[in-house]
């Protein structure tokens, strides 16, 4: 397998590059003085290639990735797999207001036009049942739940898995089953981009437990902050917060640090100080299965 690592320094990309049997392709990728992208593939182009890319903050990164794939294709590469530990543009999945773009679909079309296969970890499937509803290429979503459950079993005593909202129930149920513990899911009413109301009824019976809040994305952090406040009001211990993707927009991380939260841990799909759960093995195994 030949890998082009477009995310040097990313822990998942580095794990893939260091795997036995993985060859790493050399390339040049830089910006011209006017900001345009220069790409050169060094050596003979392979028949099949893997491209690993960090697509967090996607608007800054996606064009070079697409141009890189186009260059490979132009040089004769017949099959290109995109490994994107974090898959962006899953938020806008319907037209909430007249005139809005359904950008999840447009982004999927761009990726599908340049790549032949997609591997990612726990994309934010809310109104979509699978990536097949969006992508016209084979697109596989790998679950971080087993790695999260392993971390919980190793680090916490008497945990109860808490979902801060109904959208997180899919993660909470799976993780709780794998970790062999109870689960508790709250309901959420969103008042705006950063304002939410959390209903934490039935939390009181878990006062002697170690609450663990699990969600796929920590973005503004407001949902987890409000849920932590409700847990505190119910007399529970401060929770450990676990997120698959540590997006942390604006001041979200500082806000979480100031909240009644014992610790925040994330998977290493997006580079962040909270990274503590490795999912590189999931992606490597998926690549080796083919």
From TrEMBL:
Transmembrane domains' residue ranges: none
Residues of the Ribose-phosphate pyrophosphokinase N-terminal domain: 8-113
Record EC number: 2.7.6.1
CDD domains, per database record: PRTases_typeI
Superkingdom of this protein's organism: Bacteria
Database matches in InterPro entries: Pribosyltran_N (IPR029099), PRTase-like (IPR029057), PRTase_dom (IPR000836), Rib-P_diPkinase (IPR005946)
Keywords on record: ATP-binding, Kinase, Nucleotide biosynthesis, Nucleotide-binding, Transferase
This protein's GO CC annotations: cytoplasm; ribose phosphate diphosphokinase complex
A Pfam family assignment: Pribosyltran_N
Catalytic activity: D-ribose 5-phosphate + ATP = 5-phospho-alpha-D-ribose 1-diphosphate + AMP + H(+)
Domain Phosphoribosyltransferase: 131-271
Any single GO BP term: purine nucleotide biosynthetic process
One Gene Ontology term of the molecular function aspect: magnesium ion binding
Similarity remark: Belongs to the ribose-phosphate pyrophosphokinase family.
NCBIfam families listed in its UniProt record: PRK07199.1, ribP_PPkin
Name of the protein in its database record: ribose-phosphate diphosphokinase
Organism: Hahella chejuensis (strain KCTC 2396)
